[in-house]
Amino acid sequence: MISNLAIAILNGIVWGLIMALIALGLNMIFGLLHIINMAHGALFMLGAVVAWYLIELTGNFWIALIIAPLCVGVIGLMIERGLIRTIEDKPITTIICTFGIMLAIQHLVLIIFGGSPRRISPPIAYRFPIFDLQYPLMRIMIALISIAMMIGLWIFLRKTKYGLWMRAVVQDREMAVGLGIPVNKVYMWTFVLGSALAAFSGILAAPIVSVEFMMGREVLIMAFIIVIVGGMGNLEGSVIAAIMISLIQGIGSLFVAPSIATVFALAFMILVLMFRPQGLFGE
Amino acid sequence: MFLQKGKSLGFILIFVLILLVLIVLPFFVDFFYQTFLTELFVWILFAISFDLIFGYTGLLSFGQALFFGLGSYTVTILMRQFGFNTELSLLLSIVIPMIFAWFVGYFSVKLTGIHFVIITIIFAIIGNIIGDTWTSFTGGSDGLTFSPRPFRLGLFQINLMDIKGNYYFVLGVVAISYLFLRRMVQSPLGKVFISIRENEERAKLIGYNVQRYKLIAFIIAGGLSGLAGGLYSLTLKYAAASYLHWSVSGHAVVYTVVGGMGTLIGPAIGAGIVMSLEHYLINFLQATDLVVGIALVFMVLVAPKGLVGLIQSKLKRGKTSV
Q: What is the ipTM of this complex?
């Protein structure tokens, strides 16, 4: 029992960190552009699929981990510049537009990649013992990479010029324009960064789950839950909420059916939406 | 006043004409196309019920799948498990989703914009998970099958196991629902819905209880989405938990946006075009949603008022130039 619990906690943390990265991308785009990106889960899936091809080509997971997010970032760039830019001020319209993009990406992948799930085998096969069970070292690696990514993101937002601009635009768009910040460019790079983050977490998730064209659908909803519970526009809140929710789900599913645990999580989220729309951790 | 009259006369003429064409059509096409058209009618009803809540009231609800699935399960379970007759089951496939819509709407209409969209998605997901888990009652992803009894109204009787009988039955119900919705959006109640869409603050200032009217629109739309689900099950003799998935609402979104929201006729045309396109594409493309997705993005960007909006602006330009 104790070893099961330990593994549930470890899994919860690892998955929570991956979800945190996805939710961060979604929340950055929301906080800045006020867009709910329904295609975010599809970009997550696209990252894993591109990585699968890159691994077939080069045989190296780490190369794929770097190149695939760049590819998806370029796709994000095309989506933002080519499609979303003209309707950025209409939130409901962008939801419909990104829903269409989601359908198109999913089914393009279905045509090219096929419908059957495929596996990306972890580049580190070593397993270390926990009590009487074994745990793959790769998952610990994944967690560490996610944490490193988040620290990098934090430094980017706090210490660089672009980060400063992004925070300025979130605070007061009009004033940012007045101060000469290229708001338009900031939008673009935020969307690209968000897309690349989604892809990056897709590749990190790939050795744990299998790669298939629908793998982003449920993840998108989980990311929504995290963003709402943590507070829309509140990035730190997203990270805390992601780990909290994954832990509760992981530990909870030791005792009740996973679907029941999810229903409770969703009901809880409705309450958050009703009574604390700014999120649990907002002021 | 005269214009209004002329308009409705024209509408009646076109409506009767289309109805006549659809009544004689089954004599010229085979069973396959009869079933296809029956399904098309069902999706038209689903799309126009969505148009009431989104196109007229301005609330983007991804939760309509929940009511569609509930209607479908109402018909299936009542007839399979409890031996209800078709008339009563179909009536309850409106009433039960309406009760659920009242419950969901009670929470949802308090929220606006993106929050509303997300809370409706959450309710649909909860429904889908329950449907998937409670397999003894819903059949889960395998679903449930049944055979409907004939529909009886006085001496009038339709055999729903017969494809043609089913065709006429669904056509009749959808046509009546269409007229009902059209009447409603032209009534004072419909005008309130439109005023909420156009400017919620102003509607509030005039003195309308905006949340109450939103709830009314949500309940009516939920009931009609449920009816669509009930008819769908009557046509396929089947219901499954996947009908409750929030992405089913995406169908209604696509048809409504492509055809033109807030017009009723637009979603109907949209459903016809998109479903025909899919039906044609499936011959050489496994994933027709690729084209559907692209069409949706294209319409949102190029013609946000849909095909009907395009035609209307063309006509207007023609008139002013004369």
A: 0.87
